Amino acid sequence: MTTFPQSLNPVRGGFVLVDPDSGRASKTIPFQYNPDTLTRTLQVQGIGGEPGDRLEALRLKGPSHESYRFEAEFDATAAPDKFPDGLFPVLCALEKSLSPTYAQLQNEDQLAGQGQLEIVPVEAPLTVLVLGPKRVLPVRITDFSVAEEAFDAALNPIRAKVSITVRVLTVDDLGYPRPGDPGARAKGGTLYLTYLQQKERFADAVNNPVTDVGVPTV
After folding, report:
1. CB 2 within 8 A of CB 72
2. Which residues pair with 11 in a beta bridge?
3. 5 pLDDT exceeds 80?
4. What is the DSSP string of 98-138?
5. By 3-state DSSP, what share of the chain in percent is helix, strand and coil, each rounded to 5?
6. Are residues 67 and 166 in contact, defined by beta-carbon separation less than 8 angstroms?
7. Cα 195 from Cα 202, distance rounded (Å)
8. Rounded mean pLDDT of the chain?
9. Is the CA virtual torsion 169, 172, 173, 174 positive or negative?
10. Which of 7, 134, 151, 157 has the fewest CB atoms inside 10 Å of its own CB, making it the most exposed?
11. What is the rounded CA–CA span in Å between residue 78 and residue 32?
């Protein structure tokens, strides 16, 4: 668990679930403690599949595939009055975007009973990972595991460590935002493009001469 001096007033990260139709935040799930470590992985989307393809060596066909892996810790023992059901509400909120809702499953069953052979898969809320103001990312959770480490007398989990892997959703996944489109896909596309612009601004701020790496001139 990360601790900070009180004077730093750290920003708390977390997830925001966005309604797929309205594009409005439907639930906010803050981390109780910000992750101690975070692993980012980027995979380039290039054109040339084989070495020696000179025409395609520097070409990019789309945004890189980016993933985040981290652990989030939750502890209900410090304030048991605030957690009468232990950590079940927090864990269930985190898991909400990973499977269809009860109502969606009931609706699918009714449609199947009416003889509709092709049923469009249900659409989950857009999951937005917030890691400070510079990283607000539309993501899809690809791996989610929970280690429940302590329980109360009713076997409610009161300490838990959640290991999460997410893949950043790009405009390849969500499409480009269009004027007048209020849905979650448009919101996610805007968030991704804003994130990309912020990274480019920070990259442009690095302007060291080539002599810093031992090259006299290029």
Report:
1. no
2. none
3. no
4. GS--HHHHHHHHHHHHTT----PPP-PPEEEEESSTT-EEE
5. 25, 30, 45
6. yes
7. 11
8. 87
9. positive
10. 7
11. 11
Single out the residue of 70, 77, 78 nearest to residue 162, CA to CA: 70
Q: What is the pLDDT of residues 176-193, one digit of tens each?
A: 998 888 889 999 999 999
| DSSP 8-state secondary structure symbol assigned to residue 46 | B
Q: Whole-angstrom Cα distance, residue 138 to residue 125?
A: 11
CB atoms within 10 A of CB 106: 11
What does the alpha-carbon distance between residue 189 and residue 184 come to, in Å, rounded to a whole number?
8
H, E, C per residue of 189-214: HHHHHHHHHHHHHHHHCCCCCHHHHC
The residue behind tokens 């990260």 is 13
Read off the tokens for 32. Answer: 């109780």
Locate tokens 């009180």: which residue?
6
Above 80 in pLDDT, residue 200? yes
Residue type, 146: V
Q: Rounded CA gap, 160 and 87, in Å?
A: 8
What pLDDT score was predicted for residue 142?
95
